[in-house]
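Annex B. Sample input.
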Amino acid sequence: MSKELDRVAFIGLGVMGYPMAGHLAKSGKAVTVFNRTTAKAEQWLSEFAGHGECAVAATPKAAATGADVVFMCVGNDDDVRSVALGSDGALAGMAAGSVLVDHTTASQQLAVELGAACAAADVRFLDAPVSGGQAGAENGALTIMLGGSEADYHCVQGLLDVYAKKSALMGPIGA
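Annex B, continued. Sample output.
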């Protein structure tokens, strides 16, 4: 895995995101997390801080600042918009050339919308819903179906392999 992808952010620590972010921490990545329920983020930090450089951020923007890759796994389209867009959203903290990966099972319309917002900010984007449920997330055995460019997929594939048994690029954003 490329050294340049050692700093990641994970936004959304529900039944799926919590263990996914944990696998990234256990793999030696510097992981900054954000969750709308701060107590959940603090619980995650207490569980995984011993595995490397881990931190809790107060906003999605703060979590994304300095990250090479930002992962999101939240509830629905509106939740994605609330943590990705706006002055405190993840996109506002992301540097040009970094990658936003949305694991939320969201609409094709949202994927296209986020792809356009990322392109305007010179940020790469992959829509990447996951399959496998809570057990798959806990066991690092998810399946990920991605939409985006082949280059962006190959850029983050090593990170995805940390918590997925299989990932595949299905086509362009929204596919």
